[in-house]
Design a protein that fits this description.
The protein has 192 residues and is α/β, with parallel strands linked by helices. It contains six helices and twelve strands. It has one domain: Rossmann fold (3-Layer(aba) Sandwich). The N and C termini lie close together (11 Å). The relative contact order is 0.16.
Length: 192
């Protein structure tokens, strides 16, 4: 069972290689569609913008390969912008199309105490420990998901993570969340 770490061109790849090595996982770095077909599980980390991640995936053909793999039952975990790209569209990059694997869209977080971006540690309902967030957009599913984890930015509650069939996502950075993040990644990858 090989875990594929997808290199969309907009991700903190080295951090996930370090995690895979720490957890002693059998992994490969996926840079093209052929690499996707060799994996039984996929992790899609992303940093930066929805449009940046989407563009990198379209240029390499990874978008269609990942959608086909998920359709065959391969499990996919999207992280931060990698979670957002699981949705079809984002207010951050109008006109750019995401993977569309989850129904809904990505919206800007409300401004809280003059802050336009959620940076720092937050508790996530249903998970043990606090997790590190850096984002100014959040996912809104148009249909209920099997499992939903919520966090708060000021008084605004947002989707911090979810599971829907063989698709999982987390908005926070588990690789930057210390022991709690490492334990969560280990558990999610085991459950995939």
């Amino acid at each position: 069972m090989t875990l594929g770490i997808v290199d969309s061109g907009a991700c903190n790849l080295r951090a996930y290689v370090n995690v895979a090595e720490t957890l002693k996982l059998d992994y490969t770095i996926v840079t093209n569609p052929d690499g996707v077909s060799e994996c039984s599980k996929l992790v899609l980390p992303g940093v930066g913008s929805f449009g940046g991640v989407a563009s990198g995936m379209v240029e390499t053909g990874l978008d269609e390969a990942i959608k086909a793999a998920v359709g065959r039952g391969v499990s996919l975990l999207g992280i931060c912008a990698g979670m957002q790209i699981l949705f079809r569209e984002s207010d951050e990059s109008p006109g750019v199309i995401g993977l569309g694997l989850v129904e809904g869209s990505v919206k800007r977080l409300p401004v809280v105490a003059r802050a336009k971006i959620n940076i720092g540690w937050s508790h996530v309902n249903g998970l043990e420990g606090d997790f590190y967030f850096v984002h100014s957009f959040h996912c809104e599913s148009s249909k209920p998901l099997e499992v939903e984890y919520k966090a708060s930015f000021g008084k605004h509650e947002f989707l911090a993570g979810f599971r829907s069939g063989n698709i999982l996502g987390v908005q926070f950075h588990p690789e930057k969340s210390g022991k709690a993040g490492l334990q969560l990644l280990s558990r999610l990858i085991d459950e995939m």
